[in-house]
Input
Amino acid sequence: MSKFFYKGTPMKKPAHSSPGFETNKTVRLGTDKAPAQLSVQTEERKQELIGVFEENGWASIITVDATQEENVRDLDILMARKETASATTTKQANRNDPCPCGSGKKYKKCCGQ
Output
């Protein structure tokens, strides 16, 4: 006798409406889908900001309105993100490279232990 007992028809798999991998990402500021929105008071300031945005490859919507105060909060956010994203890393010597301490030995025999 088998240890698996058959009790009627097996249940069907449920139909899942959503895929297993979610692709809903948040939209980043400064892209075409979410451009930075700024308001300035003069046309000269607008041209200056357009130059900054084109230099960095960001999308923006800049309005000129002399009655409102200047709103460049989105630019401040983008500039802060740019400063933190450009971190540099120092290259560590490989095992068979000369040791950076200047002893003339291989890194694995000197400081790599």
In short: The chain is about 25% helix and 10% strand.
